[in-house]
Amino acid sequence: MVSSLLQQVMRHENSSILELDGKEVSEFTPSKPREKWLRKRTHVKIRNVTANHRVNDAVFTEDGQQVVNGRFMYGPLDMVTLTGEKVDIHIMTQPPSGEWVYFDTELTNSSGRISYVIPDSKRLGIGVYPVKMVVRGDHTFADSYLTVLPRGAEFVVFSIDGSFAASVSIMGSDPKVRAGAVDVVRHWQDLGYLIIYVTGRPDMQKQRVVAWLSQHNFPHGIVSFCDGLVHDPLRHKANFLKTLICEAHMKVFAGYGSTKDISVYSSIGLSPSHIYIVGRPTKKMQHQCQFITDGYAAHLSQLEYGHRSRPAKTGGSRMVLRKGSFGLGTNSDFLRKRNHLLRTISSQPAPSSPTGSHAPGHAHGHARPERTQSQSESERERVERGQRSMSIAASCWGRSGSTKLEHGGLGASRAPGGGHGGASRAREVGGTGPGGK
Fold first, then answer.
1. CA nearest 138: which of 32, 54, 28?
2. Is the Cβ–Cβ distance between 68 and 116 less than 8 Å?
3. From the first residue on, what is the mean pLDDT of each consecutive set of 10 residues in the chain (437 residues)?
4. Which of 267, 337, 350, 412 could form a Cys-Cys staple with 192, CB 3.0–4.6 A?
C-alpha cells in the first residue's frame, strides 16, 4: 500500500510540467497513440513485469555523427527482452521551451536494442538535449540526454562508487554520501567543466544509480555504465574516457576515484597532480596521485584557495553549462522533473570563479555535512512553489494515468529525486540508491 501511494505521489510531483517566464508548458504527451503489439507473444512476455528501459547518455561534436542508443527490457534483471516492437524517438530540440519533436520510429532488434542515427537535416547544434524514447505498445519510456560540445571542451570525471559512496556492493543497502562530495562536484561545474560520472555497474542498474544521484542532489552530468555484466569494468571506464578524448575531442582536467581508478586515469594521460583518490595513502601509490585524507571539505578549501583549479577552457566559449543537478536545480525558469543542464550559444565566457558559497572551514563536517547549501536553497524554492503547485495537482493527478507513462528508463529513476519533496519521502521509507530498491 505504501509503495503504491508513493508511486502515485512521485508520479504527480515529477510530472513533466515546465514553467517558463511564469507560463506553464503542458506535460509530455506521446505523439503516437498506443497500438497493438506487432508480435502476439509480447503481451504474454511482459505481463506482470515492470519496464527497465534505458538510453545511453551521449556526447558529440558539432560535425560528428549523432547517434541515440537504447535498450528496452522488462524485469529487474532484464528477464524479458522487447523484440521487434515500435519505439518512437522524441527530442526536445529547443530546451527549455518544452517542445518535444518527434523524430522517427524504430523497431527493436532481437536483443531489445535500438541505434538511431540523427539525419543531417535534423542535426543538433551546441547544447544539451533531453531525449525520450517511448514504446508504442504500452507507452513505457526511457529518458536520456544528448550533449553536443565544441571541440576542446574540458571535463572532470568521477567514479561513483570510488569517490562518492562508502559501499561498492551491487545489491547492498543504500550507501551514504561522503561528506562534502556534492560541494566538490558543484565546484567544478561552477567553473564550467562538463561532469562525467563513470561506474563499473551494469546498465540494468541505471534507474537505481541515477535515482541515488538525484536523491543526494548531485550536479547533472553524463553517466556511463557497462554494457551488461563485464569481467573488466576498469577497462570499460578507460575505453569510454578514451572515446570522449579521441572521438568527441574533449580534454580531461581531473579525475576522482579509489586506488583502483589510478590506472584508468593514468591511461588517459592525467598527471598524478590531477588524480584525486579517496582512501588511505600508501607508499606505493603516493607518487601516482593526490590522496584526499582530510575529507572533501578540506580538499574543496585547497581547490578554492590553493589555486589548484581554474575555469574551464571551452572551445570558443560558446557553451555555458548552467547550474543544475539530478534533483531540483537553482534555475527557477526551467523546472524539469530531474535536472536543469541547459545549453546556451553565447559569446560570454564560462564562469571565471567558483560561487564561493561553500563552507571550506568545516574541514571535518558536523551535522549531516552532505546537506549542501544548494540543497537548502532548493528547499526554500520548494516551499515557495508549494501553494502554486497545488492548483495544478488535481489536473496533473488525472493526466498522469491517462498517458500510461509508467516508470522506465531515466524518467523512472528520477522519480525519487525530482526535487527535495520526493527525495525526502524516499529517504523516509528507506531511500533509493545504487544498491537499494
1. 32
2. yes
3. 64 41 55 92 92 93 90 91 95 83 95 94 90 95 92 93 67 75 94 93 89 91 88 90 92 93 93 91 88 91 81 55 50 35 40 41 41 47 46 38 40 40 40 45
4. 350
Spatial CB neighbours of 416, under 8 Å, sequence gap ≥ 6: 10, 211, 214, 215, 422, 423, 425, 426, 431, 432
Sign of the torsion angle spanned by Cα atoms 407, 157, 170, 329: negative
Residue 120 DSSP code: G
Tracing cell 541515477 back to the chain, one arrives at 210
Closest of 57, 153, 35, 21 to residue 105, by C-alpha = 35
| 370 membership: H or E segment, kind and range | none
Q: What is the pTM of this model?
A: 0.68
**Amino acid of residue 287:** H
> What nine digits make up the cell of 39?
508480435
Q: Residue 291's CB: how many other CB atoms inside 10 A? A: 18
Rounded distance, CA 270 to CA 241, Å? 11
